Amino acid sequence: MLRYHSRKTRSSLKNALMKKYLIIVGIVALVLIFLSYYGDISDENEKQRLFEESKKEKQAQAAEAASKPRQPEYPRLSLTVDEAAEDYNYMWQVLEDNYPYLRINYMDYREIKEKFSIMAAESLNQSLKIDVYQFRNTLINCLNEVSVAFSAQLVPREWYEYYYSVYRQTNRYSGIFTNENSKALYKSLGAKIEDDIFNMPLPTTDADDFPHTHVTPVIFNNLLCDIIDEKTAIVTVNTQGYGAEQLEYDEQKIMEFYTKIQDCENLIIDIRNIHGGNGYWLKLFVEPNITKKLTRNIYYFIKSGKENTDYYTKYASESLNGVEVVEDLSQFVNLDTSDPVMSGHVYKYSETISPASNKKMFSGNIYVLNNDFTYTSMGDRFVSFCKDTGFATIVGTGLKGEERLKNTLSFTTDKNLILLPKSGWIFMYSPSCELNGDGSLNIERGVEPDYPNNFRETPLETCLTKIAEKRRSLD
Questions:
Q1: What's the domain range around 149?
Q2: Same domain, 320 and 465
Q3: C-alpha distance from residue 216 to each of 220, 223, 252, 279, 297 (Å)
Q4: pLDDT tens-digit map of 407-445
Q5: Over the range 113-135, which residues count as b (16 or more CB within 10 Å of their CB) and which as e?
Q6: Which residue of 47, 199, 224, 384 has the lowest C-beta tally within 10 Å?
Q7: What is the largest CA-CA distance in the chain?
Q8: pTM for this one?
């Protein structure tokens, strides 16, 4: 009986403990549910608070940004009609006031100006805006037509790289190369204009205006030296004289040839169809064959526009060192300075060449052959020097004509750079041009030969004929 009661008591105790356990578990569950519910509410409240704070911060930033001047995005990819017209008209204002080649006879610059103005207007009428690269093409084509001997053109990417590396840290053209839109435009064309680029080499060019910076191999047959007969020798210059190595090699070659032709009466120097050379002709042909100084006057014309005045006073005053203003213009009968397009000043520079020694390497008669494609230093300047000083007799064709003007290179090394403010494009032009003694443009009129050749014979044939005639007259 007692054992049964004991078992019953233990069972009741066990059940009581189980009930307490379940009650505790239930209470814990209720507590957890309660905490979970109110915890979620707290998290949502915190999230809402953070969201509101973030929203207010963004609104404050937007308000601050709106209060500041808006920074433009570069490059500008389109222009309004008025902006494109402003740049185009400004370019022409600079050209009309400063560019010296607008009176070339074959060209009516007013027609060119109107032609491209109409082209620009037609493209603009298609929409409210014009693509900045389309506008660039219009400027390029316009300048190509008005340019004489590459003396006016839109600055290409390669030249921008060079000019930027040279001028960006100087006062010269500072307003151009600090222009962010212009930098971005040329960078979009592939220009390398990072700030760590210094002393970028000059772009390779065919122009005589600048030296080639790449190393060119010596051309061994640049000079062809030959003896035509016992009285006449000939030197043919095949290409050009760039580089110190080329000059040194050709100078040694020509000096050896001079020693071989001491008994010859005539030396023909054939410079047809070549260009370049810088001081090449002086070292090889002039200085060895004179015994006294030769002096000639070189005349330049510079228009009196604001951009030219600024250029020569601020940036290129050294270009006028040793140059004097010509007050008496009576000899320049072909220069009409009363014409507003030709309003400016004539400058004179005296060039003096000294002999290499007190004895000529060749003491006979010297003839120079040229044609319409003889140009720049080795051509125009050598031919002009021979004509002005009587150093040699010129045989060939006159250096003139539209085709020559369009495909030769300008004498002047000076180039003025102008920023078109709305688009960011840059164009450059030569501010000066060389005049003949009568005031005509040298690049247009050229140099008249002493013995012009006719279409039936070459300059060499004409020269040999004149030599034969002279020889017969002396017999």
A1: 78-188
A2: yes
A3: 12, 16, 18, 17, 34
A4: 444 444 578 999 999 999 999 999 988 888 888 887 777
A5: beebbeebeebbeeeeebebeeb
A6: 199
A7: 177
A8: 0.71
